[in-house]
Amino acid sequence: MQKITLKSIRKKTGLSQKALAELLLIKQSTVCSYENGDRQVNRKIAYKYIDIAKKHGIQITLENIYPRD
Predict the structure, then answer these.
(1) Counting Cβ atoms within 10 Å, is residue 55 exposed (0-12), middle (13-18) or buried (19+)?
(2) Per-residue pLDDT at 3
(3) Euclidean distance between CA atoms 56 and 38, whole angstroms
(4) Strand, coil or helix: what is 44?
(5) pLDDT at site 49
(6) Closest Cα partner for 60 from 23, 11, 6?
(7) Neighbouring C-alpha atoms within 13 Å toward the C-beta of 14
(8) What is the DSSP letter of 41?
(9) Which pLDDT does position 67 carry in this prediction?
(10) CB contact at 8 A, 43 and 65
(11) How far is 58 from 13, CA to CA, in rounded Å?
(12) Torsion from C-alpha of 3, 36, 58, 61, nearest 10 degrees
């Protein structure tokens, strides 16, 4: 399964970091940290990313965010 970066998901949705942060109920700086790899997304937020992506016609799974080695 191909790893999809959180930044690429956001860009495909057309959302800014701020808009995505508002949908995820987190700070913009946290979104930035996820995208830069400074922090790892917890499962709760990962599922929210998946839901937001699906609403924008982007099909991803948890394995895209957490690929198996």
Answers:
(1) exposed
(2) 65
(3) 26
(4) helix
(5) 93
(6) 6
(7) 3
(8) P
(9) 78
(10) no
(11) 8
(12) 40
Token pair for residue 46? 């990962």
Burial class for 18, CB neighbours closer than 10 Å (0-12, 13-18, 19+): exposed
Amino acid at 14: G
* DSSP letter (8 states) at residue 69: -
User: How far apart are the C-alpha atoms of 66 and 22, rounded to whole Å?
Assistant: 23
Q: Any residues with CB less than 8 A from the CB of 6 and at least 6 apart, and which? A: 31, 34, 35, 41, 49, 65
Residue whose structure tokens are 């799974």: 61
CA pair distance 17, 62, nearest whole angstrom? 20
Q: Which amino acid is at 17?
A: Q
pLDDT digits (tens, 9 = 90+) for 17-49: 999 999 999 999 999 999 998 999 999 999 999
